[in-house]
Amino acid sequence: MGKYYVQSGTLRTVVQAESGRKAAIWAVHQAMQQIFPLDGPPSTGDEHPAAVLHAKVRVSERGFDRADAGQLTTLAVLAEWNEMVTALDRLQRLLHHGEVSPESTDPPSPADPPNPATDQLQTLPSAIDPLE
User: Fold this and answer.
1) What letters, b where the CB count within 10 A reaches 16 and e where it falls short, cover 53-85?
2) Which helix (H) or strand (E) holds 11?
3) The model scores a pTM over 0.90
């Protein structure tokens, strides 16, 4: 895993990730956790002011404010982050609310009607260019 310097607006963070794109998603996740925490109550804002994202997310393996940093649109990174959070939420509901048994590995028979709660998650094509 590489070390990436990710910046957008007031957000500046160093992330270890498999790629620049994944580092950008994780950095946006950190920013979004300030507003929409997945676990626990929302931040009171007393610790640090919330990061404000710019229209672009810049990612570099060399440091902040580099002219050669890769750029992704924040909207594209947010869309991919949203896909990830939605998939995780769906998996959590499926596993913790008894809709699907983790022990059940048998595929449905052709006679079984479609069940939206057990349909496989589909990966949408990424709108983000890789930074590798």
Assistant:
1) beebbbbbeeeeeeeebbbbebebbbebbebee
2) strand 11-17
3) no
For 17, the token pair is 């990730």
* DSSP string for 72-91: EEHHHHHHHHHHHHHHHHHH
The full length of the chain comes to 132
Q: Name the burial class of residue 8, with classes exposed (0-12), middle (13-18) and buried (19+) by CB atoms within 10 angstroms of its CB.
A: buried
DSSP string computed for 32-56: HHTTS-SSSSPP-SSSSPPP---SE
pLDDT digits (tens, 9 = 90+) for 33-82: 888 776 666 555 556 667 789 999 999 999 999 999 999 999 999 999 99
Q: Are 24 and 128 spatial neighbours (Cβ–Cβ below 8 Å)?
A: yes
Our CA angle for 120, 125, 131, nearest 5°, is 125
